[in-house]
Amino acid sequence: MRGARKRLCSALIVAYGLFSLYAAYTVFLRPRRPAAPRPQHRDRRGPRDHVALGNEEWNPWEGDERNELVASRQRYEANLKMIKNARSHPEQTSLRVQIWGKAAIGLYLWQHIFGGQLEPADATAQWREGSQKAGKTYFSFITGPSVVPGYFSVEAENVVLVVNGREKAKIAYATQWLHYAGTLVQTHKIQHVAVVLLGNERCNNDWIQPYLKRNGGFVNLLFVTYDCVLVNGEDIFQWPLGVATYRNFPVVEPSWSMLRSPRSYLCNFLGTVYKNSSRETLMEILKQDGLDKLCWIAAREQWQPQETNESFKNYQDALLQSDLTLCPVGINTECYRIYEACSYGSLPVIEDVMTPGDCGNSSIYHSAPLQLLKTMGAPFIFIKSWKELPAVLEKEKKMSLQEKIQRRKKLIEWYQNFKVWMRQKFINTLENSFLPTDKG
Q: Which residues are within 8 A (CB) of 120 and not within 5 positions of it... i.e. 6 or more apart?
């Protein structure tokens, strides 16, 4: 019995050994037959650019993934290059400018021209500030009643002072700030000063001249509103009046309805009618043939510096619901109404005549008045007399909605480009004046 078991075990061991030898031969030594080619996979939706080959499966996103890898690599290399450039030129191409907004026109500069934000958003706040990088320059902006000479941090060696010089009381306040800036220059706490001046409507701005560097003062650059005869394109530049930010006129973003919806009125005029002015002529002409029934007209006899919520809403609605905005001259030809109409795509109809005062003489400045806007190709309607208005309105009646839509697009696009151009001109002028020039 024991011998039979021994023989059985020996047979099993021999059989296991033979099986192991056969398996080893099959795996390692036996030649392989070539695999039969796999049929190409055909998608029901049609042939593909990429076909499955061998044991690989077709990846429908393979091209996108490859492109994304390439794009990602390019972005990485571009960012790396930008960082290297920044490190190799840390200060040579950078400028820090602090803007002191001590007149409402400063808000037009910061919020409308620069597209900057302010914190807090509340327009009645005592202190508001913002910052942004533009060109080679880092700008910071401060404004509000709490911004008082000597009671805030001067954070840059280059300053832009925004002041109002329309009347004696405003000039007195502006000179306090100029004296403060002059003291900082003398004590080497700041190096350069530029002034943005809301000028006098009759262009009586001689009081600023002693402060200009060209006249022995410390102000390197002056940006001044209206057709001031001081403008030379070298260190004195014309600046747009802009919208009435002192009445909190907003930054208006174009909308589909603003561009494409029919408007209820041919024109609008909401404003003060002064005695013995061309505005009286305008009112008389509008009453002829019932033209005033086609337009949104709200005339008043006395100027109101502040709007009520209701009157301000009416004014905005009038701009939005009128194809044309009538812009008669006041003390000056340039008025806030021009820029506010552009914001809403309502084409300004401008009384193109010089007003009394010291503004640009049309015999010398051929494009005056409004030479800045005309130089920039403003697509407005310019008339010399309101007697031309009936013909303008008659032509307006015959225009199709599509023609008006195209005109609105052109106007809004021009105004946006105008603001971009003014921003870039402002930045370039500061950088060319304030940045040290390479002499190597």
A: 128
Name the phi and psi angles at 296, rounded to 5: -90, 105
Each domain of the chain, given as residue ranges in start order, spans: 95-225, 247-418
Note whether 315 and 270 are within 8 A (CB).
Answer: yes
Helix locations, 128-272, DSSP H = 168-186, 256-260
| pLDDT attached to residue 344 | 98
164 has a pLDDT exceeding 80: yes
CATH architecture of 95-225: 3-Layer(aba) Sandwich (3.40)
Same topology for domains 95-225 and 247-418, yes or no?
Answer: yes
Q: Could you report the per-residue pLDDT of 177-232, keeping only the tens digit for each?
A: 999 999 999 999 999 999 999 999 999 999 999 999 999 999 999 999 999 999 99
Give the chain's length.
Answer: 440
The answer, yes or no, to whether residue 366 has pLDDT greater than 80, is no
pLDDT of residue 311: 85
What is the C-alpha to C-alpha distance for residues 327 and 246, in angstroms, rounded to an integer?
19
Pair of tokens at residue 374: 């005309």
| CB distance 259 to 410 below 8 Å | no
Token pair of 333 as six digits: 């030809």
Q: Which tokens is 20 given?
A: 């192991």
Alpha-carbon Rg for the chain, nearest whole angstrom, is: 37
- The b/e string for 97-113 (b: 16+ C-beta within 10 A; e otherwise) is bbbbbbbbbbbbbbbbb
Chain centroid to Cα 176, Å, comes to: 31
pTM: 0.78
Architecture of the domain made up of 247-418: 3-Layer(aba) Sandwich (3.40)
Helix axes 389-397, 278-287, angle to 10 degrees: 40
Alpha-carbon gap, residue 126 to 248, rounded angstroms: 15
> In whole angstroms, what is the distance from residue 148 CA to residue 126 CA?
11
pLDDT tens digits, one per residue of 372-396: 999 999 999 999 999 999 999 999 9
